[in-house]
Amino acid sequence: MRYSESFIYTLKEEQKEASIVSHDLLLRGGFISKLASGIYNYLPLGLRVIRKVSNIVREEMNRAGAQEILMANIQPAQLWIESKRWNDYGSELLRIKDRGERDFVFGPTHEEVVTDIVRRFIKSYRDLPINLYQIQTKFRDEIRPRFGLMRAREFIMKDAYSFDADQDGLDISYNKMREAYYNIFSRCGLKVRSVQADSGSIGGRDSEEFMVLSSTGEDEIVTCDSCRFSANMEKAESITMDDAGSEMDLKKVATPGKQTIKDVCEYLNSDDKFSAKALLYKNEKDEFFCFLVEGDDELNETKAARVTGSVELIKLNDEEIRASGLHKGYIGPVNFPNKNIKIICDERLRNRNSLVVGANEEGYHYVGAKLHRDFEPDLMADIRSVKENEICPECRKGVLKKTRGIEVGHIFKLGSKYSESMHALFLDRNGKPKPFLMGCYGIGIGRTMQAAVEQNNDKNGIIWPISIAPFEVELISLDTRSEEIKRYCDNLYTTMLKRDMDVLYDDRDERAGVKFNDADLIGIPIRIIVGKKNFVNNQVELSLRQNNSRQLVNKDDIVENVKELINELYSEIDKGDKI
Fold first, then answer.
1. How far is CA 365 from CA 9, 228, 361, in A?
2. CA 567, CA 550: separation in Å to the nearest integer?
3. Quick check: helix, strand or coil at residue 440?
4. Domain for residue 246, yes or no?
5. Tens digits of per-residue pLDDT, 449-502?
6. Residue 409: beta bridge partners?
7. Both 483 and 517 in a single domain?
8. Nearest CA to 195 among 213, 214, 217?
9. Number of C-beta neighbours around residue 222 at 10 A
10. Beta pairing, strands 539-544 & 379-381
């Protein structure tokens, strides 16, 4: 592509809407442009990257035995009613009506549609296993779209769905996809780590997220310093070695004006880990919950939502707390006055012999409270967020460390969640109808593009891995008015295209500084610079964006040198790092 004939426009100033570097660089580099909150247009450079990522995904999915289809974006509500997600999915689901007032949704995901397709055609175990995938635009009405393509409302996604006759088959399909995902991200030049994850509204048993480690990642994860255990905070558990404390008699004590755990424990000269804080929430069904966690712990809202069967949890405000007959700062499980509020107690409190808890009376707390003796929760569950330096639950010797990551892929074992509710059945070897066992496997194509930028940049701009760069080579002419240099560059450009090299030819009549700044910002891996100073000596400059290395090459040998360099860069990516 000739730069002078292209639709490439770069921006000098940092973009105010961008809070992370990758978002800023994609905007400034002319890869994407914002249309509305969480909705972006892909400009020519961005679309070239998207297509290269998509092609890598497509090749690896095909190699793993999956078959590509394309499903409708607009889905009838009836399918979502069948799967029981019409009411459960939440406000992210964009619901629309056609002219006949029939309900539809703009697909955020396609479990219902693909299950409908398979139940129409697959009738016997002999037709299994099967894996169908697509690369397509989705829409989720995120409440807080942010970070550009990382948390957009409209996005491009690869989603695949496997159908098997039994659990062994599902395990095989899942592991094939897991290996395919490592291959995909390795070929995209990304360093990823798979972590145990919460399945969320998709459902199912096991799930893993593929994370690009980054200090600016929106997801917090924990990793073990002794084994390969990794999990996001929504799923992570740990082993804690805490003192149970001495058993005491229950006693009500005055704590005037002391409402926070810190203030109460300081007033009573008590350790906050021997206290329980009560947190009041409601969900989308107007069900009310009192969550109890240790005083020095934090409630994990995703875990809390999962154990209560909630799509969304909303913290009660002061007025709602008063209307429930409770006193803010003095809420506790002993003699709990409101039977309409379920008490969910964190598992860690099971090990405490005595606790400081609210007395449900303004200005008073109980000391010495003990689970099962003084109060009985409706449910015990893991609802806390793990902390650094707690013991790894897998190897039971390493300690957990926190880091941040960007989710680029997620794989699930759905089991029969959708096939049972939608009556998607096949006949097994004994002629008996059984529900399909399903797996679901997603990759954010735009997220992968932006994650590559987040992991590969410097102060001047993007450093693309060659496999997904918009172009492999940038040819820069520093003297467009010299007929000799123009003729050489034109011939070199044509020759490289004939040799199947992906080239951007900067033939603009611009100053050298402008061209170099744009080249750094756009981040094409290999750069050929043709200028008077070297050309008179029959030389051109060859440089690499990743380390700014430079060398002078005979102008007649440049094509072979570039071809060799391209092969070296691809070879480096093929080696890949699997964390």
1. 64, 44, 8
2. 18
3. strand
4. no
5. 999 999 999 999 999 999 999 999 999 999 999 999 999 999 999 999 999 999
6. 210, 443
7. yes
8. 213
9. 26
10. unpaired
